[in-house]
Each structure stands twice: as C-alpha cells, then as structure tokens.
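Narrative of activities, Objective 1.

The group set out to show that a structural description can be obtained from nothing but a protein's sequence at a throughput compatible with the screening campaign. Below is one input-output pair from the validation batch, recorded exactly as produced.
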Amino acid sequence: MTTFTTKLFASVCLIFLGLFSCQQEIFEEDVESGFGLDDWTTETHSEYGEPNYEVVFAQDKVHRIDIVLTTDEFTTMQNDLAQFVGFRPPGTSVEGKPIYVAADFYYEGTQWYEVGIRYKGNSSLQFASRDGINKLPLRFEFDKFEDEYPEIKNQRFYGFEEVSMSSGYLDQSCMREKTAADLFREFGVPAAQTAYYEIWVDEGDGNPKYYGLYTMVEIIFDTMLQNMFGSSSGNCYKPEGEGARFGVTGFDLNHFEKKTNEDEGDWSDIQALYDALHASTRSTNVEKWKADLEALFDVDGFLKYLAVNNTIQNWDTYGLMDHNYYLYHDPADDLIKWIPWDNNMAFADDLGKGALSFEMSEVGDDWPLISYIIAVPEYRDKYDAYINDFINGPFESTKMQAQYEDMSTLIEQSATSEVSGYSFLNNPGDFYSDVLELQTYVSQRKTDSEAYLH
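Output recorded for this entry:
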C-alpha cells in the first residue's frame, strides 16, 4: 500500500470513527432523555419541565401513588431498617441514613422508572417501627439511580427531583403537618408546600398493601427556595446538633449541613451571624447590636415564625430541640432567613416535654436566637403584635373551624380506611376525636393568647 493510500485509508477510518463517536453521543443523549421509556414526556419526567405545583400539590384531592418493589428490594430495605430501630438515648441518632432501593413508581396511570425510595425520619421512624407500625416516613429521589440506568438521567416528577412523605407520626387527625405549613405561608413565613397522598406498595408478591394516608412535603433545597425566594443560589443549611442552638458552648460549623453550594467550603455567613449574636455590644450598645444583627439575619421574619410557632405550639422545634429548621442566605436582600420544618408534633402542648409558652420564659441563654432577641423590648413588642395579627387572621377561630371541616371531609375516607399495622389509629373513631380536639384547640389558644397579651 502506498504512503498516499495509507494516509487516505487512515483518514477514512478516522472519519468513520468520528461519525461512530457522534452517533454514540447522540444515542447517549437519547438515553439521557428517556430513550426507550414509553411514558416519558418533557412535562412529566424531564428536567426541562417546570415544577407543576397545580398537579403535584393540588389541594382539592387525595392523590394516590403506587410503588412496586421486587422481593429482594423490599428485603434490602427491611434489613437496613433494623439498625435504625430500637432504644437510643434521647437526642442521639444513628450515623447515616436508610438505604435507597430502585422502585417502579406509578401516578395516575403513568410510570416513573427506577425511582429511589428509602425510609426517613428519626423518632417517627424509630418508635413507629419498634411498635410494629409499618406506616413509616418515606423519601423519593427520582434520579437517584441514573448512573446505573442512564435512560433516567435527571428524571423528575412533574419538575420535582425529590419529595418527602410524612407519615403523620402520633397525629391521628393526619392534619397537623399540612395545617402548620399552610398557616406559616399564609402569615408570610416561608414554608414548604404540602398535599395529601395515599401510598400503596407491592412488596414483591403482587399484592399491593395500603400503607396509609401521607402528607407529601416539598423539599426545601429542591424547588421551595426558587419558588419562595426566586433563587436557589444562596447557601442553604439544615442545622442539627448542639451547634444548631447557636449557644456559647457547643457551637460547631460542622452542625450546619450544606444543602446548596456543597463544594464551596465557606460557612462564613453562619460564623458572622454567630459573632453578631454574641457580640459584646448586646450589653454595651444595644442599638448597634440590633443594627449589626439585622444586617445579617431576618429578625422580623424570625419574630413572625416565633409568633406562629408558639401559638400553634410545637415541642419538636428550636428552643427545645436542636433541629427541624433550615437557614437560607437569600441573595435578594443578603439576609439569612428562617424556614420551619417537620410540623407533625404541632397543635398540642402535651406531647413529649411540652411546647414553648407565649412568654418563652423557660428558654435560657443556651437558645440565644430566642432569649437574646426577645429580651429587646422593641422585638418583644413586634412579637406580641404578630401573635395578635395571627390569632385574629390566619388562625381566627371561625376560619379554622371551617378549614378543619373541609379538610376532614377531604381525607376522611383515606384516613379511616387505614388498616392495623399501617396506622396510628386504633379505630376510625380516633380520627374524628382528634379532629374535634384540633377544633377545640383553636378556641383554647385564642383564650390563652388574650390572657398573655392583656
């Protein structure tokens, strides 16, 4: 073969290989876009579809999800669950999180493929499972297994990458999680969207089991930041542990888990907030202390949160427990915002150790975001005014009575159809009794708030 012929042959080979490579890239792109998956559409499955709140968080219905597992997948979940069940000292948790397995996910006749499903939660997982109740909180991640299945790359559920399913642990009305989130948002406190879902699970035997009525909760760092603040580019933290108290002792930046900008090792905004909170000017120049704190932290938003949280009462919250909130450094105004999380223990003062009082006199300096701020007369006056606005606005008795009636009608069939082993109800009567308790509670808190304010 001549040199010219050799070069020509080599060029043809390179062109052929290039075309093959391009075809392969196109094929891989097709795979990433749902190639070969019958139900895949841009609106329902693709990352290019906008989050569809009107579908996923529709308020006028109880949705239904069907999950299909193989026997091996279900066994893997149960075996892994064992390490999260059993006695643990209060305030402690097992390292890590429950394992994900890939499941078939169906909603209104449409399939989502190889969806990651796992158990979630702390006490709601540990104690319910220990007591033989299989209605456990769940988490779905729709593209969790994209590395193993490239055809589901960036799979979404109507624009949502992840969603959380609250089991309503210790809530026989199934209303607390949803009602609290709705009230926070109605009063101007940023909080996740929620909706009701029935969950049915085929554990691999072809016989779907009704796992019960759940509350779907929007994931803060997935879509809520963009929806509420118009941006998700700021630092978002999920604090947990002693450092999350912001106290003089135990403060640790490692207790502020990053949920955005994870690759940037910068916690300077949290450190700056801590420094401003504990600055000596708190006792020597309170006006400067206030100005410096307000330049970093949305104090007014935090006071609104306290007014709502202390009115509805929630014992599993800051001031009593060092978790169940997020912080977001909002680039729009450069302030750190408080976002409540996990409200299934709200609307009761007799769960666990008891909730915070209106006065918050029981809160010591180990919870300085409350004790330092509320010690300022101006802030206390704002807090009191917000309680009055809330109790006569979103939490007004007549309005709430009607809201509970409507919600009870909506979910009654789903709640009272729960079966033994998959319910926190002993019998359907428990549902009706707890709804009545919530209605009575509204009137009681009106009386309590008036006694406090006057």
